Amino acid sequence: MKKIRVTELPNGIRIVTEKIDSVKSFSLGFWFDVGSRDEDENNNGISHFLEHMFFKGTKKRSPKQIAEDVESLGGYLNAFTSKEHTCFYGRGLDVHIEKIFEVLSDMVQNSVFKPSEIIKEAGVVIDELNDIEDSPEELIFDKFETNIFPDDPLGYTIIGTEKNLKNFRQKDLFRYINERYKFNNFMVAASGKVDHDEIVKFTKKYIKYNFGLSDYKRNICTGSVNDDLYVYKNIQQAHIIMGRTAPGYKDKMRTKVSVLSHILGEGSSSRLFQTVREKNGIAYQINSFLNSFYDVSTLGVYFSTNEKSAHKAESLVLNEFRKLKGKKISDEELERAKNFLKGNIIMSLENTTNRMIRNAQSLIYYNKVKTVEETIKEIEAVTREEILELANQFLDNNTYKKVVISSKNLLLHSVA
């Protein structure tokens, strides 16, 4: 029998499960293919706010009862919102899966969004927004994506704006659910000690609300970049991102770019870590990143250092760009990067929640569950010649834009 099974119900709900006999627990996720890129300027932040509000009481449960009904079984509830989807998930022992399924079903179908709870939770999320503002290593990624996607909803922050959060009302939440939360963008995903046919049965039994169908389609991001951005903060360190756009999940080139990113700056043996931190000792944090969406990714380098060393750190980064563009890497370096990337993937899958998330996202982005073996084959197929070609395509510093958070305008003295 297949360990991973997928079923699509007549109403459009997709169900994906992965059975793991070696565990006694499960991870269960209710996914809506809805995120901040589906918002507009006036309701930006509503997907994330709804994620919070679904925990704030239903027709038959108070917020406390939602938590108690799961935690009294030794279980756990949580949720997260990205730019492209929202997931409500629970963990627990296999004998309690139906109860946790029922609680999640109650939350997504019967939440009441009391005005008093909306006001309270708006204050909580504003505090969360202020925490981000006080964390430059987190804030800079929001600023970078806002700057690199200025004319697209991908540039909106997930958390939204204080103005919007203060203005959300009960009718706004119900209207957004009626517009965006539909059967054909709803998925149930489970991993661990689970039975596929049982999950299908629970879905039919407990999902009774008629979400309906939608023909809504996201706009494909065409990309549009602002100039470099400087953000003043009264802080000791300078935080810098140098980045650009790259292929998204739908592009077969993405895996190759991921290998390039690992060679450049992911891991302690990477070129940037060794050069900037180990040899020169001028940055505690330095890493490359590839943050992907369906149609586009952001590729770049993030580092923080004292303001006096910022220009030198930038020069060292650009020098590593030039080296990767000028000469093919060795077989040994390519193999190290591949093994690092493969190891991270495989080790992450020792966690049932990670497996549940991987299967759901695979179905969302590829319309199939892409196996680990398929991903490993793609990584192993990357060649030295392709890395050289990609380096020349994506590490051209003329195409990179910078975001700097510091107490001085370091962009006035930018390295050429």
Task: Outline the structure in words.
The protein is an alpha+beta fold and 416 residues long. It has two domains: 4-206, Metalloenzyme, LuxS/M16 peptidase-like (Cytochrome Bc1 Complex, Chain A, domain 1, 2-Layer Sandwich), CATH 3.30.830.10; 229-413, 2-Layer Sandwich (Cytochrome Bc1 Complex, Chain A, domain 1), CATH 3.30.830.10. Helix content is 44%, strand content 19%. The protein is built from 15 helices and eleven strands. Strands 1-2-6-3-5-4 form a six-stranded mixed beta sheet, with helices on both faces. A hairpin with a 3-residue loop joins β9 and β10 (296-306). α3 packs parallel to α8 and α11 (310-326) packs across α15 (384-394). The N and C termini lie far apart (59 Å). Residues 412-416 have low confidence and may be disordered.
Question: How would you concisely characterize the structure shown here?
Answer:
Helix content is 44%, strand content 19%.
Keywords:
disordered C terminus; Cytochrome Bc1 Complex, Chain A, domain 1; globular; 6-stranded mixed beta sheet; 416 residues; single chain; 2 domains; 15 helices; alpha+beta
